[in-house]
Amino acid sequence: MRVSYKDLKRYREIAGVFVKYGFSFLVDRLNKDSVAGKIKIFEPNEEIKGLSTGERIRKAFEELGPTFIKIGQILSSRQDIFDKDIISELEKLRDDVEIFDTDEAVKIIEQELEKPIDEVFSEFNREPIGSASIGQVYQAKLKNSEDVIIKVQRPGVEDLIKSDINILKRISKSMRDLVLDYGFDLPKVIDELDEQLKKELDYNFEAVNCRKLGKMFENVKEVYIPKIYFDYTTKKMLVMEEVKGIRLTDKEKLKEDDIDIENIVKIGTRAFILQILEHGFFHADPHPGNIFVLNSDQIAFIDFGMVGLVDNDMLDTINTIMLAGINRDVDRIMFILNDKGLIEAEVDEDNMKRDITYLIHYYYDLPVNKIRMADVVDESFRFLRMYKIRIPSQLVLLAKTAAILEGTLTDIYPESSIEYLAKIYVSRYYKRKYNPKNIVNDAIGSSSRLYYDVKILPRQIRNILKNIERNNMKINIGEVKFTKLEDVIISTFTQASMALILAACIISSSLIVSSQNVVKYKLIRFLSLGGFAVSFIIGLIFIFSTLKLTHRSKRK
């Protein structure tokens, strides 16, 4: 592993901190691969030896500064990688970093604005109201008297983070074999961290996230999203409307202002479900400090640096697994996991089925008000780690966000439970799923995919035949029956043609139904209904012929 001269000092500093906190086995591995010189290995003192693994990781990250604090915060959502004790320590990582000089902040602001600060802001509070690993926050007032907050990137933090990530990428290559037994790909994790940190180093991403959430909630009076001033926002500086409300952490103030806490909990739950089901885009850091209460009927979100995405396929998979769990259908859950390619070949599926059955029966018999999302998430990810089931990082983030939100709302209203969230989720999911407009859109989408699959089928068959002709394909003769190869090929192309016609009928009929003229003209309405009728008949013939062919093949 080669380390550039520029990064050599930082590399040795990182390795030294790892040794200090008892991770000398990692450094010993680096010493074998490194050309940066051998790092001295020594025993940690008795105080450090008495700490848990999670505590030692947290303290090491705190000592290594902004990059590792931010990495630790991001990794605190990766319950698919770490155990609960490590996650709980990483969650303690806070941006309690040293405040940098306001003169430096003003200098950066003026460089980004390309003009003196007093030409844009009539007031600027030189005392920062927050300091984080990446930036510092100030209060100000625009020339039009609007109150704003300004986020300013910490001087030199971008170069430091880039240097640290480059070092971690080199280290991860040496550690690849060492962490494979833990069921995760370290270089891939570092690449994901790199992508996340690049976004957090560019305030334009946060600005776009805020605007997108603002459009999502523009017709929802229960949720307020602050305005972004794009004219003054750059990569290193963010100007946003100041939200004036009560933080969820200020329980005394909420009580003094006679806020209806139960209604606030319901609003927060509905807002989360709306983001997931309606838009597939969600605020991924809903801890108490990022939610303000404006009144008993309205909340506001701030800090949009971390967001998550979830697509319809993922939602359908989650819902199918949930329903299978409710019905105690373990075989269905196993089928889904296999179908998605999540189960490794060497996994003992009998043991896996047993553990899934245990999980289902444990939570199935618990009263709903006793179930906590955090416990369900912890148990689920313990199971995933045990069987080395790798799931998309966005799904991990979604589960973590749900657990954070539940913890946030339970903290201010202990009587709340998963029951209300589950009811809202199920209600909204099926309302959306069986909405006529969505059914038509899904039909058009499915038909388009079917049309594409059928369209490329002849090309795929032609490529297979070419490979056979060129002797580029190995065939196990014992598994192939040549008796009626011609009939099989004819039957295959007949079915492909029928599928193509069926797809064309469905697409054309769906497009006619979605037309604005379908209500005005009877002829168009009859054409659409006729198209669906023809599709239905062709579909029946298609199914019958497929079953007949399958029956024949079994008899042979």
Description:
By secondary structure, the protein is of the alpha+beta class. It has helices at 5-20, 24-33, 46-49, 53-64, 66-75, 84-90, 102-113, 157-180, 186-200, 203-216, 251-256, 261-279, 312-326, 330-339, 349-364, 373-386, 393-412, 418-433, 436-469, 485-513, 522-555; strands at residues 121-124, 130-131, 135-142, 147-153, 223-224, 237-241, 246-247, 281-283, 291-295, 298-301, 307-309. The protein has four domains: 5-94 and 161-199, no CATH class; 101-154 and 202-242, 2-Layer Sandwich (Phosphorylase Kinase, domain 1), CATH 3.30.200.20; 245-434, no CATH class; 436-555, no CATH class. The strands form three sheets. Strands 1, 2, 3, 4 and 6 form a five-stranded antiparallel beta sheet that branches. A four-stranded mixed beta sheet has the order 5-10-9-7. A two-stranded antiparallel ribbon has the order 8-11. It is globular and about 80 Å long. The N and C termini lie far apart (60 Å).
Estimated share of beta-strand residues: 5-15%
| Percent helix | 55-70%
**pLDDT averaged over residues:** 79
The biggest sheet amounts to: 5 strands, antiparallel
N-end to C-end Cα span: 60 Å
Radius of gyration: 29 Å
Q: Uncertain segments of ≥5 residues (pLDDT<50)?
A: 475-485
Structural class call reads alpha+beta
As for the number of domains, it is: 4
Oligomer designation: single chain
Shape estimate: globular
Strand count: 11
Concise description?
With 556 residues, this protein is an alpha+beta fold. The protein is built from 21 helices and 11 strands. It has 4 domains: 5-94 and 161-199, no CATH class; 101-154 and 202-242, 2-Layer Sandwich (Phosphorylase Kinase, domain 1); 245-434, no CATH class; 436-555, no CATH class.
